[in-house]
Automatic annotation (TrEMBL):
GO CC annotation, single: cytoplasm
Gene: hisS
Assembly mode: Homodimer.
Entry superkingdom: Bacteria
Positions with a binding annotation for L-histidine: 87-89, 117, 131, 135, 300, 304-305
Protein name (record): Histidine--tRNA ligase
Gene3D superfamilies reported in the protein's UniProt record: Anticodon-binding domain, Bira Bifunctional Protein, Domain 2
Substrates-to-products reaction catalysed: tRNA(His) + L-histidine + ATP = L-histidyl-tRNA(His) + AMP + diphosphate + H(+)
Positions of the Aminoacyl-transfer RNA synthetases class-II family profile domain: 1-379
Keyword entries, A-Z: Aminoacyl-tRNA synthetase, ATP-binding, Cytoplasm, Ligase, Nucleotide-binding, Protein biosynthesis
A Pfam family: tRNA-synt_His
InterPro entries in UniProt: aa-tRNA-synth_II, aa-tRNA-synth_II/BPL/LPL, Anticodon-bd, Anticodon-bd_dom_sf, His-tRNA-ligase, HisRS-like_core, HisRS/HisZ, HisRS_anticodon
Coiled-coil regions listed in the entry: none
Predominant place of localization: cytoplasm
Species annotation: Phyllobacterium myrsinacearum
Length: 504
């Protein structure tokens, strides 16, 4: 016998979560809505594995002992480093490069899957989460980036977020690169410092201009006492970077004019502003003008972006863990990454795409009351009153008849009596239970107990007259009529839920 001291402690690793049925079903429904939009735009599904060669991921390479900064990695038996993917874009680049000759160009694809970050977990920050991406590879025109922004807007509305509650914010990394070149951060030797600057600007919504100023300089000490080392820029460089992020105007035309002034004289920056002007024009022509906004504060933290970058931001207020009203913020983003596929092919291969954070979008929909799981009905439970083979066979046939009629059903498989079986049915969210003891069996009948109506009656009914006038909570039916009677009960329950939803 295992002693208490020998017993394993059941514990969940930090930064990971278990997912319960309601969350899983809600995610499936939401992702089906997103998939419809991707399909409508002509994108095709593809799936890549969770594990890639570490060098194929590109962002992190093995250090002397273990490439554990940001990714979960291990060595294969041939001593090659493998890593759990940290996003879905780098694996797509590998897939396209490996199958380049057989794929249509441009190649339009979407994929959903788990990604992993070997980072310090915290509130709302997980080491495993799901993304849902769409990408176009082989389209050099900025019109492909404009299409991505439009598709992001359509996804927001498809999942139930109304206009005015979201905005697609767009910037261009060429503009920022022009600014960084002007302060001496151009060239491959400055890549590390440049990435720190990008990540600092990416925190603008979270920390504000003062917090980002610290991250661009010597560093920032947070409330927990953790210190984040800064980019080490001097005051003049910090001022220029912050001037770029605050170049937003009252409308797209004004913002573009402001950016032109910031990057004047830098060819790359001028090219980036011209691309933003094209996105603005295409979006307006297609009727998306108010939903897609040029915003210089958008940078995206990854180094591999090479052109337009965009984020889907939800603009309504939520209450944070401190009880403060804050804007919900980003639920996805992406951009152009012309160099990622090229690493494998040695020739320019343009690409653009975006990623939806599934868990974060679900949280947003819960806040908006758009993630209703009330339609998730449990199975009809056939109770086991007698355990002889003949009776079990009869119960099993009832379950089979219900399933063949498309009704979720199960026979109780535990070893308990009737009262625990009823409790079990309640915990399963069963809409009704089927009861057949020896007397009902002899009469060729079953008892069908409506658990939803029974709970309502016990909570609301105060006298026998109302009880009799209400829908019966338990009926006796011919065994041959079982399926028809159960279906009537389920339809009545569905109608009650629909009426309640309208009233609410």
């Amino acid at each position: 016998m295992t002693t208490k001291a020998d017993r394993l402690k059941a514990r969940l690793p930090r930064g990971f979560v278990d997912r319960v049925p309601d969350d899983l079903r809600a995610a499936e429904t939401m992702m089906a809505d997103i998939r419809k939009v991707y399909d409508l735009y002509g994108f095709e599904p593809v799936e890549t594995p969770l594990v890639e060669y570490t060098d194929a991921l590109g962002k992190f390479l093995p250090d002397q002992d273990r490439p554990n900064e940001g990714v979960f990695s291990f060595q294969d038996d041939d001593e090659q480093w493998l890593s759990l993917r940290y996003d879905l874009t780098a694996p797509l680049a590998r897939y396209v490069a490996e199958n380049f000759e057989s794929l249509p160009k441009p190649y339009r694809s979407y994929r959903a899957g788990w990604v992993f970050r070997n980072e310090k977990p915290g509130p709302g920050r997980f080491r495993q989460f799901m993304q849902f991406d769409a990408d176009t590879v082989g389209a050099p025109s900025v019109s492909a980036d404009a299409e991505m922004c439009m598709m992001m807007a359509d996804v927001m509305e498809a999942v139930g977020i109304k206009r005015g509650d979201y905005v697609i914010r767009v910037n261009n990394r060429k503009v920022l690169d022009g600014v960084l070149e002007s302060i001496g951060l151009g060239g491959d030797d400055k890549m590390g410092q440049r990435l720190v600057v990008l990540r600092a600007i990416d925190k603008l919504d979270k920390f504000g201009a003062d917090g980002v100023r610290l991250l661009l300089g010597k560093g920032r000490l947070d409330e927990s006492g953790d210190f984040t080392k800064g980019a080490g820029l001097d005051e003049a460089a910090i001022t220029k970077v912050l001037a770029f992020t605050s170049a937003g105007g009252a409308n797209g035309s004004e913002t573009i004019a402001n950016l032109e002034a910031v990057v004047a004289g830098n060819d790359k920056g001028v090219e980036g502003v011209a691309e933003l002007a094209t996105i603005e024009a295409l979006s307006s022509a297609a009727g998306y003008g108010a939903r897609i906004r040029i915003d210089p504060s958008v940078v995206r933290g990854l180094e591999y972006y090479t052109g337009p970058v965009f984020e889907a931001e939800l603009t309504f207020d939520v209450t944070n863990e401190k009880g403060e009203k804050v804007v919900f913020g980003s639920v996805g983003g992406g951009g152009r990454y012309d160099g990622l596929v090229s690493r494998f092919r040695g020739e320019p291969t343009p690409a653009t795409g975006f990623s939806i954070g599934v868990s974060r979008l679900m949280t947003a929909l819960k806040n908006l009351g758009k993630l209703d799981t009330s339609d998730n009905v449990g199975p009809v439970v056939v109770l086991v009153m007698d355990r002889d083979t003949a009776s079990l066979g009869r119960y099993q046939k009832m379950v089979s008849d219900l399933r063949q009629a498309g009704i979720r059903a199960e026979m109780y498989l535990g070893g308990s009596g009737m009262k625990p079986q009823m409790k079990y049915a309640d915990r399963r969210g069963a809409p009704c239970v089927i009861i057949q003891g020896s007397q009902e069996r002899d009469n060729g009948e079953v008892q069908i107990k409506d658990l939803i109506e029974g709970a309502r009656l016990s909570a609301e009914i105060e006298d026998n007259t109302v009880w009799r006038e209400g829908r019966q909570a338990q009926i006796t039916a011919r065994e041959s009529d079982l399926v028809a009677e159960v279906r009537k009960i389920l339809e009545a329950q569905a109608e009650d839920r629909a009426n309640a939803a309208k009233a609410g």
